[in-house]
């Protein structure tokens, strides 16, 4: 009886009542899990030289991570996990503009922290695979574990268009899934359908630039690699990476 009373009091003290704080923590956790799983799938593929993972498993990890993230925070913050989606919600007047920079910062911070977690998780594998040198290009590059880079043949203009189209298809698809005027998705299965949408985009639009579809997913981990030893080259348009 005393133990139950103590737990009840502890829950009351730890409960966060401020709605904005709850939403930010939900975004932080959901984005953190999303990026941690996504980057881990990439790290497993790269460091094992595709013996314990390949492009398909990497894409599946990213798509299923989106599903998990939505289940984590969908009922609290809406599980944006993506500044592009937050922006779209603002433009359609479904999300207040003053929250946009807050969510963007939280999502980018979560992505940065996730990159650090994956670096720790695959620390030995990364250094073993790279032969002790952290590079952005070359046969033993490891920067692509954390951020996306263009194929050798892709120009800056084509890369920009590629990301606008891929992210646009994602946003339009998610908006359509959320629209109650359309054919409804069975309640509770919306995250599964969104994951399938992400997977379809990865399968069809990932060749040019890796299909990040999410500014926070790219900027946070890229900033981490800059600070962790890959250097300023991570911010350059790298050609001849293979």
UniProtKB/TrEMBL annotation:
Q: Which PROSITE patterns match?
A: MIP (PS00221)
**Localization (cell):** Cell membrane
Task performed by this protein: Aquaglyceroporins form homotetrameric transmembrane channels, with each monomer independently mediating glycerol and water transport across the plasma membrane along their osmotic gradient. Could also be permeable to urea. Also participates in cell permeability to H2O2 and H2O2-mediated signaling. In skin, transports glycerol to the epidermis and stratum corneum, where it maintains hydration, elasticity, and supports lipid biosynthesis for barrier repair. In kidney, contributes to the reabsorption of water, helping the body maintain proper fluid balance.
Keywords attached to this Swiss-Prot or TrEMBL record, sorted alphabetically, are: Cell membrane, Glycoprotein, Membrane, Repeat, Transmembrane, Transmembrane helix, Transport
Q: Where are the transmembrane segments?
A: 20-39, 59-79, 100-122, 160-178
The superkingdom of the source organism is: Eukaryota
Outline the subunit composition.
Homotetramer; each monomer provides an independent glycerol/water pore. Could also exist in other oligomeric states.
The species this protein belongs to is Piprites chloris
Task: Kindly provide the name given to this protein in its UniProt entry.
Answer: Aquaporin-3
Report the PANTHER family cross-referenced here: AQUAPORIN OR AQUAGLYCEROPORIN RELATED (PTHR43829), AQUAPORIN-10 (PTHR43829:SF13)
Pfam families, from UniProt?
A: MIP (PF00230)
Q: Which family is this protein grouped under? A: Belongs to the MIP/aquaporin (TC 1.A.8) family.
Q: Which gene encodes it?
A: Aqp10
Its membrane topology, per UniProt?
Answer: Multi-pass membrane protein
The protein's annotated catalytic reaction(s) are: glycerol(in) = glycerol(out); H2O(in) = H2O(out); urea(in) = urea(out)
Checking InterPro entries in the record gives:
Aquaporin-like, Aquaporin_3, MIP, MIP/Aquaporin, MIP_CS
